Amino acid sequence: MQKTILIPTDFTIESLVTVKQAISQNPDTKLNIVLLYSCFITDSITDLLFYSPDKIINEHCHQNFHDAISIIRNRFSEKIEDMTIEVFHGYSVLSLENFAKKNEIDHIYISKNYAIKEVKNQFDIAPFVKKSNFPYTELAQLDNNFSFSQTDNLINLFNTL
Amino acid sequence: MKSQTKIALLFSSGCLLIIILLSISVYYFSTQYSFTDFYKRLEIRAIFKAKSTLESEDMKAQAFKEVREQHLEILPQERDYVFEVNSNTTFDSQAKNMRLPLSFFTELVSKKTANYKNNNTFYSGILYQTNQKKYAVIVSANNYYNTHHLAYLRNIFLIAIPLASLLAVLIAIFVSKKVLNPVTDITAKVKQISSESMHLRLATLTDNDELSQLITTFNTMLDRLETAFETQNNFISNASHELSTPLTAIIGEADVTLNKKRKSEEYETSIKIILGEAERLEKITKSLLFLAQTGFDGKKQKMEIVRTDQLLWDVKETIDKLNPNNQIRLDLSLMPDTPEKLKINGNSQLLHLALSNIVSNACKYSSNKPVQISIGASQHQLIIIIKDAGIGIPESELKYIYDPFFRASNTKNFEGYGIGLPLARNIIRLHKGTITVTAQSGQGTTVELRFPSIH
Lengths: 161, 455
Known about the structure:
The structure holds two protein chains of two kinds.
Chain A: E1 2-9, H1 13-25, E2 30-38, H2 45-49, H3 53-60, H4 63-75, E3 80-88, H5 93-102, E4 107-111, H6 126-131, E5 136-139
Parallel strand pairs in A: 1-2, 1-4, 2-3, 4-5
Chain B: H1 3-54, H2 58-71, E1 79-85, H3 92-98, H4 102-111, E2 113-118, E3 121-130, E4 133-142, H5 144-192, H6 210-258, H7 264-296, E5 304-307, H8 308-322, E6 327-331, E7 343-346, H9 348-365, E8 370-377, E9 381-388, H10 420-430, E10 434-440, E11 444-452
Parallel strand pairs in B: 6-8
Antiparallel strand pairs in B: 1-4, 2-3, 3-4, 5-7, 8-9, 9-11, 10-11
């Protein structure tokens, strides 16, 4: 069986913990994982002229994030069919549903403990996910009051104490 | 030779060469031009002479004569010769008269014009044909232009060349000074920096040229030197302190014991104390020796393929023996599927030493709170993270943690010499790995080790 799942990310290690949990939720399925980076589209005409999603991804993706992704892929190389990063600009429930339909998403996983930071022009799609009719699961760390001690450190990917 | 003079010499000699070549070519070509120009003047005069004397129609001849007298100025020492040329004329007498070589006349007959120059006297001749008779018309004059104009030009050059070269030399000196000034500045400033004033830095320039790059490089080098200096100073003072403490204890104990006769039990206890201190001394010197050896070079160590998960279990086992109360947890949740990714090239004894140092530190400074060892593999690296919930390291002291004998200010209640971490770092460097320590005072310490994987 194969499944395509969507997980929001803001290029922090913390957001990738959800990936780990989502994989453990689907023990016998091969997964196509789509990491979704949501941000508002630029206002500048020149930037729009040279618009490229890859450029946006490269701009935000740092070495630690790359390493974390390859750690996860190495760990679950049997289960992960593919892992891609997509950029999303729609600020509404409808456009999120359209995006999910277009990318043939089966399920959305969001984190209970970690909210996507709404800094610069990026935004959190969790409220839209909750409002939509799409099947979604909210995943929590060991307990509900958990918070990460250091930000964007690779340790956060592993089992935390 | 100073490079300033070198630049000046190179620049001025280049300028001088250009000036001299230019003047010589100007002089040469103007001389050539003045010759051809003068021959043409003489030829025109010869034609006029021929027309005015040999023309059969009187009116025409008169007109030519008038034009010649009125419009053509008389050249200095202008002379003209006209004589008839037959098929059997030998030109011997004429050549003797006019002091001209015979070749001039043969050329005149064959080419109908001929030029000749003797010192400053120029000869130009034409062969004029009228009424089936041939006449040779030869005009000679002194080349005034050659003697005067060219001499004047030569004088100009003779004065201008030294002046121009002087100017070139001055400009060269100025330019070389201007170019090398920042360098001399840097030299002067660097001279001020000695071992006593290592904190001094060069002032950075605003523009991003080669020199400001040089200055930045200098400054970063000074940063490194300063840290190295400090480390060295710290090392000596700390080492002598660490070594002298047990020695003082031994000497004091022995002194007191030898003061008077004592019971054999008392001797026993004091010898035990001395033994304990001596053992401590041995431990310190041994670890120092090891630190020095690992710091030298990587050639001595034998490298083999090491499986890191096995290594971590071994480390845990060793620490379990030394400190049974520890709470080490091996987190294998993100261990890669394939064991190939876990293999690194290294010396298992050294790696064991480094890892057990780090892990036992984590146990020690957290008073046996849980310590988590996580392992994962990225594309090209193997990552080991050791996290404790201990006392941490004050942020201001993080940069000194690799100094031998350095101990953070919050470690007073824990025993240690401050050799473990520098030793671990040396070993990790031998394996081309990196070690990153992030810590906050009271919040625990996280040590991230990265080793290049075999693939």
